[in-house]
Amino acid sequence: MNSQKKPASPGYRLYELLSSMRFAIGLLTILSIASVIGTVLKQNEPYPNYAFEFGQFWFKAFEYLGLYDVYHSAWFLTILAFLVTSTTLCIVRNGPVFLRDMKGFREKAAEGSLKAMKHSRELAVSLDEAQAVALIQQRGMRYKRSQRDDGSIVLAAKKGSGSKLGYFFAHIAMVVICIGGLMDGNLPLKIGELTGSIVPETRELPQGQIPAQSRLGANNLSFRGSVTVVENKSADVIFMNSGKGYLVQELPFIVTLKKFHVDYYSNGMPKLFASDIVVTDKASGKETPATVKVNHPMIVDGVAIYQASFGDGGSPLELKAWNLAQPQSAASEIKGVSLNSQPLRVNGQDYQLEFGDLRVFNIENMGKREADGKTLQQRMHDVREVKQDTKNLKNVGPSITYKLRDSHGQAREFHHYMAPMEQEGALYQIAGVRSEVAQPFQYLRIPLDDELKIDSFMRLQAALKNPVLYDEIARRTTAKAMQGAAISPAMEKQFGDSVKWILARFGEGGFVALEKFLDAKVPADKRQAIAQTYIKILQGAVIDVMAVAQEKAGLKPWPQDEKHYRFLLDSLVTVSAFNDYKAPLYLELQGFDQVQSSGLQMTRSPGKNLVYLGSLMLVIGIILMFYVREVRLWLVLRAGSVRVAMSSNRHNRDLDEDFDKIVGALSPRAGEV
Amino acid sequence: MELLMQQPFYKRLNLADWLFALFIAVVTGYTFSLYGSRMDIYEDLILLGSGAGIVALGWFWGSWRWFFPLAGAMSLLAIELYDHNLARAGESFGLKYLLSSQSSFMWMCTLFFLATAIYWAGLLSRSDMLNRIGSGLTWAASAFALAGLFTRWYESYLIAPDVGRIPVSNLYEVFILFCLITALMYLYYEAKFAARQLGAFVLLVISAAVGFILWYTFDRQAHTIQPLIPALQSWWMKIHVPANFVGYGAFALSAMLGVAQLLSRRGILTDKLPKAEVIDEMMYKAISVGFLFFTIATILGAMWAADAWGGYWSWDPKETWALIVWLNYAAWLHVRLVKGWRGEPLAWWAVIGLLVTTFAFIGVNMFLSGLHSYGSL
């Protein structure tokens, strides 16, 4: 400002630095760069994920820098605090000058400074004061009159002082927004954690056993957390992630979930997620029912309740257990509850049966990418077409996952669908298995019979694995071959033995067992031909296997048509694939009583209104600053001449036009001096 | 937008202004008489507000007085041709080759490419005639874009009543919105500053967007109409997204003006382009408009987030990048207005600003995951 001041004190120099423009711009830049970090590195993940991704050394280093929660780290908040300080000091420093400027008309401006203005001209025209005032008022300007010592009259006019007001609005707005944000931030929590009065819980405990040091009272000013509520159950706390662990926030009310709804569009995309809840006030006992939807939160006691997620809540299940180790024994009924585990004894062995999610809707994308292999013309046609999405989303029905854990703790995981699924024109039940969580499921498809059940397949499988029946099967297959003259009478005994041998091999280990034998015993050049023969025999024998199985079960003969023959061939593939299933049991989902859960997020943010107020001020401020132009006009009236001078805070081009207009309005009266 | 200059604004309105207002008032009234019985109070207010907004825009910008009715008439004709039957899109000649939303968008793409070529020819040959043609083509492309968006809105309801929604909800649709808004803003400044030569530069960024639209349509089939997932079923979307794209459009416009200015100041095309100071001022105006709308859009986004995500600010990547863009242009405006910077450094800054904006617009969707995953590629 004033260069002739005495050397400034260090305190004043600090004040000057903090309130300076370059400091503010520097802060904006640092803030931008710091913000980028938080967008590149996924924030607030569970800590083990980070440790796994970065390795121990970098995990520690990043943790020290607070990179897992950048926006709440001490250094980030410090930058924000500096920005607020800088903006505040900027207002303090420039405010008074601006205010004076807004109020003043600068009617005492010296002739020299008016003359020096870029838009200034002396016109040889005599203008009386009334005319001059009219000229000013015509332009909607306010003015102030003053008389100089030499007798000339100065009319100092201006308009658009709101432009300066915009400065105040915009800058105070920033401070207001930051204060509002700070009120809703987790600063008190961080301080509590630093002083040790709040300790995040890291263990998985039942809610009631979580110690007081990890619990926050219902009078907490601001919070944001979530809780999962099962249908017809209640919750009166929410959980908040905090660094390595979590905190429990008590609520002033109890939330009971009555029912959770999901709706779908006809193409399978979700249309609605909604929870019917009842909120019971702890103090008054007053009950308020409401439906919370995405985009439509419910607000109680200053706490907003949002629909955030949903899932299975532990549904009673009915299952049919097929004993795979002893296929001849009848299937039994098992009851269970999803998300729960229960002990299970199979064939003298103890297992733990751990149910996972019951998913009633499984929306799968059945479509292929249509663009592949199309000509340009077809594509042109497609592009012009108005249509709904080509994604062929389909609900393939309910599924259940479960793990079967043996006494050594080894588990295999299964993913079974309930509804028949159509593939290549036939219906199947789909079952997946994997031994490690990281692997994808390997699916096998079990052909369904005319009643859409897997019973026929299981019967066939049992017969295929039952050596007692092999004699009878071989007899029938041989007789059929003889009848069709496929073999000579001399071969009868040998053929029958081959059938039995092939059935035994296949029953033990499927196609793989046959292949292994071929690889070990048969020269490479003959394998192909012999393998063909085996498969032919097997494909012929399987008809008899089924016939025997049906007879033994006292059922009517298996129909002999293409559809039912395909069932048998499919079954051979599946029986073979079942060797990789490696489980004593196959659990078939028969029925369920769906119990859902809903993830509710709850927020109390008292700073919100302050942030909105600040936002409104910001917009008003920006409009005033950019769209209100401050214009000043001086008319110095002398006998026989007038000096016109104009200035504006910006937009020189517009000022040029205005100045020309005013000069033009005066000029017809006289030429320029 | 000199709110306080000259006489009060209503004294400056001429007969054409009042006729336009009357026309829009009649149209609004007619709409109300057709559908008023099925509208709730909010919808009444929205209708009234839309009418007032269209009139205000027409008073502020003369060209809007014919552009909006033209685009409206095109889409009304399309609706007439559809006759409540989506299958007519492939049967009716007018729809199949001209007015169905997809045909409109393809015309828009073609016309924008043509306009780019003509503007460049006009710039290099210093032909005002060619520049005027370029300008006309840009107007035509914009009319197809706006009419196409209106028609698409209608088509979505023909697919199924519950699928119907405003076409600003996925990347394909907002790219068209981006082309439309950038073109219209440019056309406004072109007329105001008599600077048709700059079309060559501005249309480049629009052509790039058109290129993306074409790839997205042909390779990804992105033009199909999908219903809204629950997270997007909010009326905030209808104002948040367009406001944001006024911002993006203005920033893209300013960056291209920055390129033109830099070339001009380095003696390339200097004699063919408007004066560098004029380009500089256009750039400033574009950024100040963009900044205002971007601020409003971000605030609207925060208010929507408070309804949808449980907090007005979640430091979601999209939010954070919006903040970075905002801080960037806030700094730009500060150094211009307070420090008085002009010319080259600010032109460079505006060009770099486009990179930041583009990342916030598309890059975040491509590379970063977060709550804003609707617009993913």
In short:
The complex is a heterodimer of chains A (about 675) and B (about 375). By secondary structure, chain A is α+β, with helices and mostly antiparallel strands.
Mean pLDDT of chain A comes to 87
Discrete helix count of chain B: 14
User: Helix/strand/pairing class of chain A, anyone?
Assistant: alpha+beta
**Poorly predicted tracts of residues of chain B:** 1-5
Q: SSE order of chain B, as H and E?
A: HHHHHHHHHHHHHH
Spatial extent as radius of gyration of chain A: 42 Å
Distance between the termini of chain A: 37 Å
Low-pLDDT segments of chain A: none
Major sheet of chain B: none
Protein architecture, described:
- The complex is a heterodimer of chains A (673) and B (377).
- In chain A, α10 (455-464) packs across α13 (524-552), α11 crosses α13 and α12 packs across α14.
- Chain A is an alpha+beta fold and 673 residues long.
- The mean pLDDT of chain A is 87.
- Among the domains of chain A are: 1-102; 104-160 and 629-673, Double Stranded RNA Binding Domain (2-Layer Sandwich), CATH 3.30.160; 190-221 and 223-313 and 597-604, Tick-borne Encephalitis virus Glycoprotein, domain 1 (Sandwich), CATH 2.60.98; 458-589, no CATH class.
- Chain B is mostly helical and 377 residues long.
- Chain B is 76% helix and 0% strand.
- Chain B is built from 14 helices and no strands.
- Chain B starts with 8 loop residues before the first helix and ends in a 10-residue tail after the last helix.
- Residues 1-5 of chain B have low confidence and may be disordered.
- The chains are: A alpha+beta (673), B mainly alpha (377).
